[in-house]
Write a structure and sequence with these properties.
CATH superfamily of the largest domain: Metal-dependent hydrolases
Number of helices: 7
Number of strands: 21
Mean pLDDT: 96
Low-confidence stretches: none
Largest sheet: 14 strands, mixed
CATH class of the largest domain: Alpha Beta
CATH topology of the largest domain: TIM Barrel
Shape: globular
Oligomer: single chain
Order of helices and strands: EHEEEEEHEEHHHEEEHEHEEEEEEEEE
Length: 353
C-alpha cells in the first residue's frame, strides 16, 4: 500500500482562522504534506480544490466544512464533513439529520474534538460532543492539537510557556477520549480515528511584541493523519479525492505526531491463512492469525485488545503477537521528547470479529 500524510482540520479567514488558502498551501508544501482538507466553520468554500505541483511534488487541496449550531449556547457538537460536495450548515441544529444528510450526499463525517474541556481563565467554553445517541458517523477526531493546547491554559504562566514553546504542547490524545473510543469500538461497529491540527494561525502579542501563535507550518509538522492507499496519488483531482476518501472511510489510517520523529513507515498488519489485513480491516477469527507491528524507530509500543494493553515492549521497533482471542486490536506508541513521555503513533484497529 502507499502511505500519504494528510492534515484534515484547519481554518482560514473565511471563518475564524487568520490565514489564506495560499498560506495553507505554502505551509503544507514546506511541511512535506501530501494533502490537506480545509474545514472552515459552517461554510463550504467552492472553487479552490486543486492538485498543486511544486519542485517535483504534489499537494491535493480539498475543501470540507466544520459544522456546528451557532445558535446553541453553549456551543457543542462540532462535526467535520468531507466529500459531501455541498454546504451542510443548514442542518446544524439537528446532529442526526446533519449526519444523515452527509451520508445521503456521499460524504464522510467525524465528531470533532469529542472531549474539549473549558479554559475558564481565558473565557474558553467546553466544546465537547454531547449528542451521543447519533448514528452513522464515520469516526472521531481522536487527537486535536488546539484542544490539547487549550487544556494547558490553566493560568497566565502556563499560557505564556506553551504559546512560546509549540514543541512542548503535545502529549497525546486525552485519556478520556481514548476510553470513549474504546467504548464505541466495543459495540462491534467500526469507528475510524483521525488526528487534526485545528490550525488557526492565531495572532498573539506580549507587550509590543506581536507574532503568530502556531503558524500553519508548525501545525503541519506535528499531529497528522497517515493514510494507506491502494495506489499512489495520480495528480488527477477526482481520482485522488476518491482514493483519499476511500482510505478514510475504511480506516486504513493511523495518527502520527511527526514533530519528535517521523512516523512514516509504521505498519500494523494481521497475517491470516487467506491473506494479509491492515488497519480498518475485519478478519474472520476462525483461522490462524498473527499480528505484526513495525515502528519507524525503537520506542515504547503497546498492543491494545478491547481497550486493555495485553503486550508492551520498550525500546524496540517490532512486536509480533499470536492471536488467541477475537476482539478489537489497536496499537499505541510512545517516545520521550523534550523531557516527557509523549504519544507518537495511534493506529486504527484491526477487527478480529
Amino acid at each position: 500500500m502507499h502511505e500519504i500524510t494528510i492534515n484534515l482540520h484547519m481554518h482560514t479567514v473565511y471563518s475564524d482562522g487568520h490565514g489564506t488558502h495560499q498560506e495553507l498551501i505554502d505551509a503544507a508544501f514546506k511541511a512535506g504534506l501530501d494533502a490537506i482538507i480545509v474545514t472552515d466553520h459552517n461554510i463550504w468554500v467552492q472553487g479552490l480544490e486543486q492538485v498543486h505541483e511544486r519542485d517535483g511534488r504534489r499537494l491535493v487541496v480539498m475543501i470540507g466544512e466544520e459544522v456546528h449550531n451557532q445558535v446553541r449556547d453553549p456551543q457543542k457538537n462540532h462535526l467535520l464533513v468531507f466529500g459531501a460536495e455541498r454546504e451542510m450548515a443548514a442542518y446544524a441544529s439537528d446532529p442526526q439529520q446533519l449526519i444523515d444528510q452527509v451520508r445521503k450526499s456521499g460524504g464522510l463525517c467525524f465528531l470533532a474534538h469529542p472531549v474539549d474541556p473549558p479554559a475558564p481563565k481565558f473565557n474558553q467554553d467546553d466544546l465537547s460532543w454531547v449528542s451521543w445517541d447519533v448514528r452513522g458517523y464515520t469516526g472521531i477526531e481522536l487527537w486535536n492539537a488546539m484542544t490539547e493546547f487549550k487544556s494547558h491554559l490553566t493560568g497566565y504562566l502556563p499560557a505564556i510557556r506553551y504559546s512560546l514553546n509549540f514543541d512542548q504542547v503535545a502529549h497525546g490524545p486525552f485519556p478520556e477520549t481514548l476510553k470513549l473510543w474504546d467504548k464505541l469500538l466495543a459495540t462491534g461497529q467500526p469507528v475510524v480515528a483521525v488526528g487534526g491540527s485545528d490550525a488557526h494561525a492565531l495572532p498573539g502579542s506580549l507587550g509590543p511584541i506581536k507574532a503568530t501563535l502556531f503558524p500553519y507550518e508548525k501545525h503541519f509538522q506535528a499531529v497528522n493523519t497517515h493514510l494507506l492507499l491502494d495506489q499512489p496519488l495520480t495528480g488527477i483531482l477526482a481520482k485522488d479525492k476518491k482514493a483519499i476518501f476511500t482510505a478514510l472511510a475504511a480506516g486504513h489510517a493511523f495518527i502520527g505526531y511527526d514533530l519528535p520523529a517521523p512516523t512514516h513507515g509504521f505498519h500494523f498488519n494481521a497475517h491470516a491463512e487467506d491473506r494479509t489485513y491492515t488497519m480498518g480491516d475485519r478478519v474472520d477469527p476462525d483461522q490462524s492469525i498473527t499480528l505484526q507491528i513495525g515502528l519507524p524507530r525503537a520506542a515504547e509500543c503497546r498492543l491494545i485488545h478491547n481497550g486493555e494493553a495485553i503486550r508492551t515492549s520498550q525500546k524496540r521497533n517490532a512486536l509480533v503477537h499470536k492471536v488467541d482471542a477475537s476482539g478489537v486490536y489497536r496499537v499505541e506508541a510512545y517516545l520521550h521528547f523534550k523531557g516527557k513521555r509523549r504519544g507518537w503513533i495511534f493506529s486504527n484497529p484491526i477487527y478480529i470479529l
